Amino acid sequence: MKILCCGFFPALQRTIEYKSFRPGEVNRALKVSVAASGKATNTARVLSILGADSVMLSFAGGANGETVQKLLETEDFECNWVDTGAETRICQTLLSDEDGSCTELVEENPPPSSRDWKTFIQTFGRIQADFDRIVFCGNLPPHVPQEIYAELMACTNGDKVLVDSSKTPLLATLSHRPSVVKLNTEELSMTVKDTYDPLEQARELIAHGAGAVGITQGKDSAMLVTPNNVYRYSIPQIKAFNPIGSGDSVSAGISFALAKGSALPEAFAFGLACGTSNAMNVEPGVVKPEQIAELIPKIQIS
Question: What CDD domains does the annotation carry (predicted)?
C-alpha cells in the first residue's frame, strides 16, 4: 500500500530531558536528542514503522531545512521536498522526569512565497494518483493560504483522504467529502462554535461533507461519529513519556488500517493504539508494533 503524507512545515526537533524542569531557574539537561519532526514527518515515520510504503510531501528551506533532509535520509520512507526560501523552524520539547510534564516550544515557520505554493500544488497534482490513501497533516498559521488543503483535494478523490486539521483549513475541505476527519476536542470546539456538544459538532461536520469524524482527547475516552452510528473508545492507562506526535500516530494508524481493508471502527481503534504507543516513547512519531499489539485488546469499543 502507498500512503502520501502531505504537510507544509517540518521541524528540526530538539528533545531535552531533565530530572526536573523548573521555569525561571537554571535547568541542566540529562540528555538532548535531535530528530526531524512535524506532523507530516511523524505520520510518514509511523506508517513506515507499520510497514506501509509511505511518502512525505513538504517544504524545506534554509540551513535547518538541509539538516532535516539529511536526518531523514537515514529513515525508511521517501521524501518529496519543495524548496522554499522560508527557513525551516526549530521546535523544542522539554521533558521532566520528576513530574512527567512536557513543555513544547514551537516556532512558527516563515511563509513560503506564492511561487513556492504554486510549485507545491503542481507537485501534489503530479503524484497524488499513485497513492491508495492520502493524509493532510496539520493546523495552519494565519499567514498561509487557509484553503490550501481544499485546493489540493480538488484534484484527488476525497474517498481516500483523511484530514487532520481544524478551523477554516478543515472546513474548506468538506465540499470535497473527505472520508475521515480527525481532530481533538479543543480543535473541534474552535471549528464548530454554534454548540458545545462534541457529538453535535461532529454531526455538523458530517452534514457539510465529512464521511466520519474521529475525536480524541488525550488519555481520556475517544469518539468516532459516522452518519449512522456513534462509537466510544476507552484509552488504556499508560506511563507517558512524550505525547508529542500522538495525534499524528493516530492518523497514521487509521490510514494504515483502512488501506489494509479494515472497517472504520476497527481502524480508529488501531489508530488510538498507535497514538498511545507513541506517548510511551521519548522520540515523537515513534511507535512499537509489540506495544500496539498489547494495547489493542485493552481498547474497549461501545
Answer: FruK_PfkB_like
Q: Are 80 and 119 in contact (CB under 8 A)?
A: no
Q: What is the pLDDT of residues 105-157, one digit of tens each?
A: 999 889 999 999 999 999 999 999 999 999 999 999 988 999 999 999 999 99
Are 295 and 277 a contacting pair, CB within 8 Å?
yes
CA distance 203 to 241: 34
SS3 of residue 184 by DSSP: strand
CB-based contact 159:179 (threshold 8 Å): yes
Whether 53 shows a pLDDT value over 90: the answer reads: yes
Cell 494508524: give the residue: 253
Run of H or E residues at 182: strand 180-184
Q: Cβ distance 214 to 201 under 8 Å? A: no
> Do 280 and 48 meet the contact criterion of CB atoms below 8 Å apart?
no
Domain 2-298 has CATH 3.40.1190.20: yes
Phi, psi angles (nearest 5°) of residue 205: -65, -40
Contacts of 226 (CB under 8 A, 6+ apart): 206, 211, 212, 264
